[in-house]
Amino acid sequence: MKEKMQWPWPWRRRKVVVVVVLRKLLTCAICVIALMGLLSVRVQVFPSSKVSDLSDPYKLPTVTQQHELNYQKLSAEKKWTQELTPPHLSKEQAPPHLSKAPLSSHKLNGANGSLDFEKLWKQPSNRDFVPCVQPGSNYTAPDESRGYLLVHTNGGLNQMRAGICDMVAVARIINATLVVPELDKRSFWQDTSNFSDVFDEDHFINALANDVKVIKKLPKDLSSATKVVMHFRSWSGLEYYRDEIASLWEEFQVIRAAKSDSRLANNHLPPDIQKLRCRACYKALRFSPKIEAMGKLLVDRMRAYGPFIALHLRYEKDMLAFSGCTHGLSDVEAEELRTIRENTAYWKIKDINATEQRSRGYCPLTPTEVGIFLTGLGYPSNTPIYIAAGEIYGGDTHMADLRSRYPILMSKEKLASVEELEPFTNHASQMAALDYIVSVESDVFIPSYSGNMARAVEGHRRFLGHRKTISPDRKALVRLFDKIEKGLLMEGRKVSNRISEIHKKLQGSPRRRRGPVSGTKGMDRFRSEEAFYVNPLPDCLCKRVSENVNASTASMR
């Protein structure tokens, strides 16, 4: 009986052990499932709702697949460096894929909440407009030269660029041999650069061989010849140059143009002359190899952060002094700018009402105003921004508010080391050329003021396919900014909607170049026109003819 009573116990103990093991396995399984659920929720939430909590301001959202592919292609082709980050940047400042920053979705948090990535960066439709700059069937090689045209350019880089291209057209009109133009060394910037320091001289000569004969220097036997110095009349047409200027060849072998800016009409010139201006500007007049290489390097490094805005922040000392704009400045700063204006002889207007200037939209946006503007458009705080500018007046003092909104503010000085920029330092035109290249290649270009560079970049971007260029309506914006400053309006959805509505049609879409303002006369009429190089349509951009149209046209013949 005792043996019979003892048999069940081992089995009973074994059964209990099995039950305990199964219970533990079931508990573990439940824990694993719960953990996976928590992790999946974390992964879904992190990209959009947690980005703003990151301590590192240089951690960016994922770029589009197209930008990734383009960057990988560039990295494979270019061997300019072993790593994309310039040597002086810290890991915190490195692009996201090098700093191992977490990736986010393509939704960015803007002023109006979650704005679609595509809406912020989508390019305007080019409506099938493409460059058409080839001369007509009756266009011939340059006629026998009647003399030599010397050109003294004036102004900053982009004012000189436009003037050089106009002088190419003038040389064609008057049958002149063009001597490579002399750059302005006496302007505000005191730049000693020669033509070949800024532009590719040989390419310029060769690219125009079928249009105008260009030589590097005046022949020695003519160096002592009598030269007639001419101040060509502003915005002059074909008749002025053919009749009045070309007649000077009867007495002189050398004509010297004292200035080059705005000496040729914007409109009503023969189509071949207009197309020549575009070929000169967008084909022949390219930057020197060292500037091109450095410019592309800056673009590549900026592109590593993803889609970016190039902001032409025209808030430098010379601009503020010239325009008389002092909003947001101290009395000491305003007086310093007034003194500079008084002491600059070739600035004609001395007494300027700063308040009136600003209310008319004649002043550049301040860095603080730019921050409000970008936020109103919907660009989030982690948007990469390239500052295309010289030294900002007041430095960090005036940049603090913009930087607090948009911490990823880059510049050539931040993207490149001191050693890399050394060949261009102390040469304003060469430094401006680097900014020009990055601005033309940016995903979005925004100028704070419609100066020479802003207009030149806008025109170039139009020529290259109407790349997105947002032109602030400063007059309308000032009214909004003043209300915000006075506490009558708060930043938020209402302001954002208003800013977006104002700029809906100011983003670089194709349109014809604007003519003179109605009612203006004389020089004011020409001055009110949109400049040729701001918008090369219709002269240098034509509608692409689709294959279907070609086929239907052929079947009708």
Automatic annotation (TrEMBL):
GO molecular function, one term: glycosyltransferase activity
GO cellular component: cytoplasm; membrane
Keywords from the named record: Carbohydrate metabolism, Fucose metabolism, Glycoprotein, Glycosyltransferase, Membrane, Signal-anchor, Transferase, Transmembrane, Transmembrane helix
Topology of the protein relative to the lipid bilayer: Single-pass type II membrane protein
Any single biological process term in GO: fucose metabolic process
Regions crossing the membrane: 21-41
Pathway: Glycan metabolism
Protein name as it appears in the record: O-fucosyltransferase family protein
Keyword Secreted on entry: no
InterPro entries (alphabetical): FucosylTrfase_pln (IPR024709), GDP-Fuc_O-FucTrfase (IPR019378)
Main localization (coarse): membrane
Recorded family membership: Belongs to the glycosyltransferase GT106 family.
Matching Pfam families: O-FucT
Subcellular location: Membrane
